[in-house]
Specification:
Structural class: mainly alpha
Helix content: 55-70%
Radius of gyration: 17 Å
Strand content: under 5%
Shape: elongated
Oligomer: single chain
Number of helices: 5
Largest sheet: none
């Protein structure tokens, strides 16, 4: 994810975002397919202990926020990816990464 995030922020402009996304996003989804069942199995071993742990609840909250952020990115701004690759930019964030 860090490679994609850095590219979205403007580093590595020689590589189009759409090309990088085509290569990296399937790896991210594959990782999610492996990590979620592993986490559910670990949680199912001692659910009461995990739910009583405030750090675990914070972790779940942060994961939910990250998921919402990714969802908003993909249904929102990522749909305008063609504009990013033309050299025109995105308003106030134009100077990020330069």
């Amino acid at each position: 994810m860090a490679m994609f995030d850095l590219r979205v922020l403007g580093w590595g402009r020689a590589l189009p975002v759409s090309v990088l996304g085509r290569h990296l996003l399937p790896w991210s989804l594959g990782s999610l397919v492996l990590v979620v069942p592993a986490g559910l199995m670990m949680f199912s071993s001692q659910p009461q202990a995990f739910l009583a742990n405030p750090v675990f609840l914070l972790k779940l909250t942060l994961i939910a926020v990250a998921g919402a952020n990714a969802l908003l990115f993909h249904v929102g701004i990522y749909r305008s990816i063609a504009i990013w690759e033309t050299g025109r930019c995105c308003g106030p964030y134009q100077s990020v990464g330069r």
